[in-house]
Specification:
With 194 residues, this protein is an all-alpha fold. The chain folds into 2 domains: 1-46, Arc Repressor Mutant, subunit A; 53-187, Tetracycline Repressor, domain 2. It has 9 helices and no strands. Helix 7 (123-137) crosses helix 8 (147-167) and helix 8 (147-167) packs antiparallel against helix 9. The chain is globular and about 55 Å long.
Length: 194
């Protein structure tokens, strides 16, 4: 557990510094100091500052872990998915620079090996799968599609909105655009398609 907390502290501190001072102006020493860790701990998890770009997925996962504790167990799956999307996108708007998010998406497109955003072992995918399965069991989400397919489509919709937000350099509120788009898209996953 300590290892995960150390890595999470490094990632959270790095992204806060990137947002406040910019990626280029932030040094490894700044990240170590802000995270209250050591250079040895930093280099245990990351080869260098550039490796932190791929860590944004872990920051998202930490937010989802926090949000899971705020989910009303009686809430409809549709409402829960909209809640998660709204809260994550609100965090992104407030804490992630559009240029850095663009850089992350570009790095994921060019990556030859691991792509953190597509890693099905991430907390994000596991949480979504649990929520979709629960929604299907309750009759709130269609069973005409597999839970895995619904999770994949949901993640694809979120990435599409993030990509578009980056392309437009954050001209519109990510959260507001998602609030207009996601309900209509998610309604197609209801058993009656409404």
């Amino acid at each position: 557990m300590k290892d995960k907390n150390t890595k999470t502290r490094i990632v959270e501190a790095a992204w806060q510094l990137f947002y406040e001072h910019g990626y280029d102006a932030t040094t490894v020493e700044d990240v170590v100091r802000a995270s209250g860790t050591s250079k040895g701990s930093f280099y245990h998890y990351f080869e260098g500052k550039d490796a932190l770009l791929g860590s944004l997925a872990y920051l998202f996962d930490a937010k989802y872990a926090e949000l899971e504790g705020r989910i009303d167990p009686a809430a409809d799956a549709f409402e829960v998915l909209l809640f998660l999307n709204r809260e994550l996108f609100d965090m992104i708007e407030k804490r992630i620079d559009v240029a850095l998010l663009s850089r992350l998406l570009a790095s994921q497109l060019m990556a030859k090996g691991e792509r953190a955003l597509l890693d099905r072992d991430r907390y994000y995918y596991k949480l979504l799968r649990r929520l979709v399965l629960r929604g299907q069991e309750r009759g709130e989400l269609t069973e005409a599609r597999s839970a895995g397919d619904i999770v994949k489509l949901y993640a694809m919709a979120e990435r599409a909105l993030l990509y578009d937000w980056c392309l437009s350099h954050g001209e519109q509120s990510l959260r507001e655009v998602a609030a207009r788009v996601m309900p209509g898209w998610l309604s197609s996953l209801r058993p009656d398609g409404k």
